[in-house]
Design a protein that fits this description.
This protein has helices spanning about 1-5, 10-25, 25-45, 80-85, 90-105, 140-150, 155-165, 175-185, 200-215, 220-240, 245-250, 255, and strands at about 55, 110, 120, 125, 135. The protein has about 260 residues and is mainly α. Strand 3 and strand 4 (about 125) form a beta hairpin. About 35% of the residues are buried.
Length: about 260
């Protein structure tokens, strides 16, 4: 479908939606998803502080396709806190730090982390609805880390190289030079822009579209990461519309880099 493909990678998006939808139809997937995230949490405990994230106890022996039984967690969701104006921006950055570790350092992460799926309980975060666990390969996760590290420093030349490094087949020569020029044009107003001025979600979709139009192809897991960033972007917009999110995310670059 060459005309449809001009919009990006429609089949990749459709496959992502299909996997996400199927994950919602069997609660055993939610149990498995929590076990996966909990296992990574335990492995990371010796070298990366994830103590602000906790998981409710699940009674595996009582769970089946249509029923999941877990410990009751007391506390409001991020969505409720945002609606009441009670969620601090620092708490959102803490959430990004945790999700960023799973995404960039491990390549396995909660694939549907919208504000209704995070509970704040006694100052700690609880991830719920863990049925959709997204995965990306090392090439994609490291490339995306380098991309966002470049964005946090306003180094758009480095960003262009990082995006190209994520492509299944990298573009070269004049093709890459044209892409870099178009990329810099796309980001000419991005430096210093707040989340209310330029949507990170829209900017990323335009970026992927530009890459595909320039001859790049990407692992389909990239859409799960974009969705995660979309949720974070939306939460920041509700919490602190004057935030320059990429600058603030830059504080975690050094910490993530140690664990790539």
């Amino acid at each position: 479908y060459p005309k449809l493909k001009k919009a990006g990678d429609p089949m990749g998006i459709i496959e992502d939606i299909e996997r996400f939808t199927l994950s919602e139809l069997d609660l055993r997937r939610e149990v498995q998803g929590q076990q996966t995230l909990r296992g990574i949490h335990a492995e990371a405990s010796q070298h990366f502080d994830l103590s602000k994230l906790i998981f409710p106890h699940v009674h595996d022996e009582l769970c089946h396709k249509n029923l999941m039984v877990s410990e009751f967690i007391e506390g409001p969701t991020f969505d409720e806190l945002l609606s009441e104006g009670k969620l601090g921006y620092d708490q959102l950055l803490d959430l990004f730090r945790i999700q960023g570790y799973y995404m960039f350092c491990r390549g396995v992460f909660h694939g549907d982390l919208h504000p209704g799926n995070v509970i704040l309980s006694n100052g700690r975060f609880v991830f719920v609805d863990t049925g959709f666990i997204a995965e990306v390969g090392r090439k994609m996760r490291v490339g995306l880390f380098n991309f966002f590290a470049g964005l946090s420093k306003n180094d758009y030349g480095a960003c262009a190289k990082s995006l190209n490094s994520m492509s299944d087949v990298e573009i070269q020569g004049e093709q890459f030079r044209k892409f870099t020029k178009a990329f810099e044009d796309l980001y000419q107003n991005f430096t210093g822009a707040t989340v209310s001025q330029i949507s990170l979600t829209q900017q990323m979709m335009k970026t992927i579209k530009l890459g595909i139009h320039s001859g790049m192809t990407f692992e389909r897991g990239i859409f799960s990461i974009i969705r995660s960033l979309m949720y974070l972007d939306g939460m920041v917009l509700r919490c602190n519309p004057d935030a320059i999110l990429l600058n603030d995310m830059g504080q975690f670059v050094g910490e993530f880099k140690k664990h790539l």
